[in-house]
């Protein structure tokens, strides 16, 4: 899986003043026979500058000057709706795979749940975008917080750009259809960071993912 970090600004800005922030939007495609299926999905990067003494946007709660300001590379951040304290977290993409799910039932449940936006509904593959509850409309469309894909009516693949987004998405997924889900396999996807000086894109492996068993408890973090 590749994530868009290729369009990093060739800086006229001071690279130590802020963060790259990754946004994913969905919007209807007015030129398509069905504007909603699949619609258009777009990722953009913005540069958020912050004061050195304010909380770092990585979620550490340390002042920026004592945390990520001096890092030699950017690890993008992403907005998380419904966060208790910090609304931005470092991008650290995750994938969960649920095998041997009852696909027909699951497909129906997901399609009936307005928190999931169906963007593909082929016999062998169905795809939904988690929009948040309520959805956030932005400059380029509706913000997307994670993806759910059903393959061959037996394999459910859930992806999110950070652990916090994944927790939020799984809360909704278990709320919608927890009784139909098996224990998932979780993987941390490879991560792309950008060297602040050269603009070079570097791919790194993330540390092992947390134990997925805790997701299945379906508890909200409040
Ligand atoms: Zn930080």
Reconstruct the topology from this structure:
Elements: E1 18-27, E2 40-49, E3 73-74, E4 77-79, E5 88-90, E6 94-99, H1 103-112, E7 116-121, E8 125-130, E9 137-138, E10 141-143, E11 146-151, E12 155-160, H2 163-177, E13 185-188, E14 191-195, E15 201-204
Antiparallel strand pairs: 1-2, 1-10, 3-14, 4-5, 6-12, 6-13, 7-8, 8-11, 9-10, 11-12, 14-15
The structure holds zinc ion.
Zinc ion binds next to loops.
Q: How would you characterize this protein structure?
A:
There is one protein chain. It is built from two helices and 15 strands. The chain is mainly beta and 222 residues long. A hairpin with a 5-residue loop joins strand 14 and strand 15. Zinc ion (ZN) binds next to loops.
Structural features:
222 residues, mainly beta, four-stranded antiparallel beta sheet, globular, binds zinc ion
> Major sheet, described briefly?
6 strands, antiparallel
Outline type: globular
Separate helix tally: 2
Stretches with pLDDT under 50, minimum 5 residues: 1-9, 210-222
Helical fraction: 10-25%
Structural class: mainly beta
- What fraction strand? 25-35%
End-to-end distance, in Å? 32 Å
In angstroms, what is the radius of gyration? 18 Å
Following the backbone from N to C, one meets helices and strands in this order, namely EEEEEEHEEEEEEHEEE
Average pLDDT: 86
Number of strands: 15
Cofactors and ligands: zinc ion
How many discrete structural domains? 1
Question: Order of strands side by side in the largest beta sheet?
Answer: 7-8-11-12-6-13
């Amino acid at each position: 899986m590749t994530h868009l970090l290729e369009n990093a600004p060739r800086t006229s800005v001071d690279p130590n003043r802020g963060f790259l922030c990754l946004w994913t939007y969905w919007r209807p495609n007015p030129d398509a026979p069905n504007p909603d299926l699949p619609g258009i999905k777009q990722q953009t990067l913005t540069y958020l500058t912050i004061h050195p003494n304010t909380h770092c946007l990585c979620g550490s709660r340390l002042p920026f000057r004592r945390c990520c300001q001096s890092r030699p590379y950017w690890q993008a951040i992403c907005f998380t709706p419904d966060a208790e304290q910090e609304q931005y977290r470092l991008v650290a993409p995750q994938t969960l795979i649920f095998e041997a799910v009852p696909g027909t039932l699951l497909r129906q449940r997901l399609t009936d749940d307005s928190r999931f936006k169906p963007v593909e509904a082929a016999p062998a593959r169905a795809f939904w975008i988690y929009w948040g509850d309520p959805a956030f409309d932005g400059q380029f469309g509706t913000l997307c917080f994670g993806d759910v894909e059903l393959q061959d009516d037996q394999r459910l693949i859930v992806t999110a750009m950070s652990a916090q987004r994944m927790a939020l998405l799984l809360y909704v997924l278990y709320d919608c259809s927890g009784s139909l889900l098996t224990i998932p396999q979780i993987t941390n996807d490879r991560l792309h960071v950008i060297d602040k000086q050269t603009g070079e894109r570097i791919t790194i492996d993330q540390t092992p993912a947390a134990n997925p068993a805790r997701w299945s408890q379906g508890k909200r973090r409040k």
